[in-house]
């Protein structure tokens, strides 16, 4: 069976995540000890307040995903990798694009730069539920919103996140609600992520990444921006790709659809919560030939290992 390993994005992090895994799996504890040496703090010991801060939440989320990944036995079946937003960074390490130390330094720098950019350019994000993507795109193409508000996360059919400058995003959210959206929810984030408002951070991250050792991915690694495996040209100019990743949309619906069309029949989320598992279930609704799993706890990992 062809597998897709999907790495969680930011937002599902919780206090003590990873502790049960570290207690039961020595390799997980060893990974966290290595991460603590690299980051200067132990991700297992972060408080609720710290995990609410993107400076800690991003590295901690990636650490859990990678700790689970390295605890899995070597794959015997064909597989592909993907990650939602921040999760794509965990996929980079899993595919060998960066070694663990470089990847964690890169994620920590990404978090720092995004925090600064959010303070400089005020922005908001809204989840729009119950409208077709084309309707949302048409509204945002209007003069009042063009270049100020963008569709950024294509989560699943009927669920799209928009982001932009605070005032314009508020107005667009109200218009989308009036246009028939079932719900429009303000997200508890510090900025307008995956928009051009992140450009200063994107350029700085690109310069930072240019100093790191970068290797081509060892397996198909699906890009958030194209919903296809990373091309040879993207792999050859990775710092520039990272800049585009920070300012461009996450085409998750298209990514999962393309994975399915490429023969993937088992989807496994690695990381806290079950967000990606739920999105995959909605995207592939009606397809009875798929298995959709998540691994975020020791019990999940034990169950998965017994299955395989």
SSE layout and pairing:
Blueprint (H helix, E strand, L loop, with lengths): L1 E6 L11 H6 L1 H14 L8 H4 L2 H18 L7 E5 L3 H8 L5 H21 L2 E7 L3 H8 L8 E8 L2 E7 H13 L4 E4 L12 H11 L22 H5 L1 H10 L4 H10 L2 E7 L4 H9 L7 E5 L2 H10 L1
Helix pairs in contact: 2-4, 2-6, 4-5, 4-6, 6-9, 9-11
Descriptors:
alpha/beta; Alpha-Beta Plaits; 2 domains; 4-stranded parallel beta sheet; 4-stranded antiparallel beta sheet; 14 helices; 48% helix; globular
- In the CATH hierarchy, the architecture of the largest domain is 3-Layer(aba) Sandwich
CATH top level label of the largest domain: Alpha Beta
CATH topology of the largest domain: Malonyl-Coenzyme A Acyl Carrier Protein, domain 2
Give me the side-by-side strand order of the main sheet. Answer: 2-1-7-8
Q: How many domains make up the 3D coordinates?
A: 2
Would you kindly provide a written description of the structure presented here, covering whatever features stand out?
There is one protein chain. The chain is of the alpha/beta class and 308 residues long. It has two domains: 231 residues, Malonyl-Coenzyme A Acyl Carrier Protein, domain 2 (3-Layer(aba) Sandwich), CATH 3.40.366; 65 residues, Malonyl-CoA ACP transacylase, ACP-binding (Alpha-Beta Plaits, 2-Layer Sandwich). The strands form two sheets. A four-stranded parallel β-sheet has the order 2-1-7-8. Strands 4-5-3-6 form a four-stranded antiparallel β-sheet. The longest helix has 21 residues. The mean pLDDT is 96.
């Amino acid at each position: 069976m062809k597998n897709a390993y999907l790495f969680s994005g930011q937002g599902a992090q919780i206090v003590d995540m990873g502790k049960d895994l570290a207690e039961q799996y020595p390799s997980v504890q060893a990974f966290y000890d290595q991460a603590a040496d690299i980051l200067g703090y132990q991700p297992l010991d972060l408080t609720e307040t710290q995990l609410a801060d993107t400076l800690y939440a991003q590295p901690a989320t990636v650490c859990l995903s990678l700790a689970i990944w390295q605890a899995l036995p070597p794959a015997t079946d064909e597989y592909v990798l993907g990650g939602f937003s921040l999760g794509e960074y965990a996929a980079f390490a899993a595919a060998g694009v960066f070694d663990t130390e470089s990847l964690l330094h890169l994620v920590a720098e990404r978090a720092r730069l995004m925090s600064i950019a959010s303070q400089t350019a005020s922005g908001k994000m809204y989840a729009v539920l119950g409208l077709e993507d084309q309707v949302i795109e048409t509204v945002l193409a209007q003069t009042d919103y063009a270049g100020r508000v963008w569709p950024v996360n294509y989560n699943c059919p009927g669920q799209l996140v928009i982001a932009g400058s605070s005032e314009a995003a508020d107005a667009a959210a109200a218009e989308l609600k009036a246009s028939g959206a079932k719900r429009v929810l303000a997200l508890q984030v510090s900025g307008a992520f995956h928009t051009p408002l992140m450009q200063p951070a994107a350029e700085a991250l690109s310069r930072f990444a240019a100093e790191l050792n970068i290797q081509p991915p060892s397996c198909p690694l699906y890009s958030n921006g194209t919903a296809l495996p990373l091309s040879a040209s993207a792999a050859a100019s990775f710092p520039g790709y990272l800049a585009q990743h920070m300012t461009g949309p996450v085409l998750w619906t298209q990514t999962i659809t393309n994975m399915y069309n490429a023969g993937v029949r088992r989807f496994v989320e690695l990381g806290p919560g079950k967000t990606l598992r739920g999105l995959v279930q909605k995207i592939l609704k009606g397809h009875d030939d798929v298995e959709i799993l998540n691994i975020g706890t020791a019990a999940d990992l034990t169950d998965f290992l017994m299955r395989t």
